[in-house]
Amino acid sequence: MSTPNPGMDRDTFDQFLDQLERYVRERLIPAEKQVIEEDKVPDDILAEMKDMGLFGLTVPEDYGGAGLNITQYAKVVQTMAYAAPAYRSIFSINVGMFNSAIKNGGTEAQKAEWWPRIAGGEIACFGLTEPGSGSDSAAMQTMARPDPDGNGWILNGTKRYITNAPHADVALIMARTEKDALPKNAHVSAFIVPMDTPGVSTGSPDKKMGQSGSHISDVMLDDVHVPSEALLGGETGQGFRFAMMSLDNGRISVGAASAGYARRALDSATKYATERQAFGEPIANFQLIQQMLAESWTEIYAAEAMMADVTARVDRGEDTVKHAAAFKVFASEMCGRVVDRVVQIYGGAGYLAEYDAERFFRDARIYRIYEGTTQILQLQIAKRMLREHAAGV
Ligand SMILES: Cc1cc2nc3c(=O)[nH]c(=O)nc-3n(C[C@H](O)[C@H](O)[C@H](O)COP(=O)(O)OP(=O)(O)OC[C@H]3O[C@@H](n4cnc5c(N)ncnc54)[C@H](O)[C@@H]3O)c2cc1C
Questions:
Q1: Which one of 160, 199, 216, 256 counts the least CB within 10 Å of its CB?
Q2: The pTM is what?
Q3: Per-residue pLDDT, 6
């Protein structure tokens, strides 16, 4: 158990959330077409999001952040995720991964340096995946060797599919400090690497199935020298642990995003069903359409209830590895089922790029894959269950 987190004062948070809901409906949704056509979040919206404090939601107030607890943070993500996913994606690594790693493992000096910077809108990325290692992240090949001059570390390797890498200011890079030593994950360390460090470069943004406006690319590290202060926590061998703790947080963010986006898709389908006529009446009158609407609503409600439970547990300081994994699996799979039904409710129009249903379907697909695939998380849940069973918990 860690210390309970009260977060932002309740009334202030409720007001913030109300304003955010209005901002999503009145500003972000109307700009979605532009995000898709230009494949980027417009600069003026990005500046507004920074001003609203979205890049430092969970950074403590003393360091320039909004000081939200996890319950509040998940609600913000869910609210933002009602609009196109690119809006969440641009700040999600700051909050879900980078800030969480600094919080769990950073030294006081690292917190003092990086929290105000990311809360102020510097964009972070998180480099775990590599060309040869994704789910099996401990198999990573990126190496960090002590600088022979005795002053810091030299990093070499390639990270793959790194969200926000093309416009990031800083990366948290996971690298091995021993090449072949076992267990592999005991020799992974995390390094804070400004993206303008000599030797750091990024590939062209990858073309993706969905989520226009959000970008991923390779990050290449070629004899990148970082000072000793760049080692997260100042201790080698802790990087894997910090990465896994950050992923718990990231999984809650993906679960919340799935719940928010599923509701958006369902609202769109409900409206369409009342407007579209077949056999002389709105298709919403047909009970088989109603079944799809009702199943979707029920499943979204279940995901929201899981979100309320897991985030309350985190804020009480409980161990939530199993719960965060279960929430992410359920919410992302649920979102996949909902967007599929939404395409069905739209009929032929559901298959056309002119309507929203098709992009909801493509955008949602990644939620079941990143920050732990459904399969890997199911293994993690079962591992915990079996361990608890053996321990008689
Ligand atoms: C849009 C996007 C953004 C991303 N952003 C980031 C980022 O910011 N930072 C980052 O580090 N990574 C990022 N990733 C990488 C992502 O986290 C990985 O793609 C994901 O973890 C899966 O790894 P993989 O692609 O290597 O798949 P693999 O590990 O090759 O898995 C392939 C399939 O095998 C299954 N599988 C693997 N092992 C097992 C097993 N033991 N039992 C059963 N099934 C198994 C998987 O579930 C999957 O279905 C991103 C990826 C995408 C597409």
A1: 199
A2: 0.97
A3: 86
Give yes or no for a contact between 62 and 101, defined as CB atoms under 8 angstroms apart.
no
For ligand 1, atom 7, the nearest C-alpha belongs to 162
Is the shortest distance between the CB of 214 and ligand 1 below 6 Å?
no
User: Which DSSP symbol is given to 215?
Assistant: -
pLDDT of 1 = 57
Reduced to 3 states (helix: H, G, I; strand: E, B; else coil), residue 41 is: coil
Domains and CATH numbers, the chain: 10-123 (1.10.540.10), 125-235 (2.40.110.10), 241-390 (1.20.140.10)
Mean pLDDT of residues grouped by 10 in the chain (393 residues)? 81 97 98 97 97 95 95 97 97 91 94 96 96 92 93 97 97 91 84 98 97 98 97 91 87 97 98 98 98 98 98 94 97 98 98 97 98 97 97 90
How far, in Å, is the centroid of ligand 1 from the Cα of 131? 10
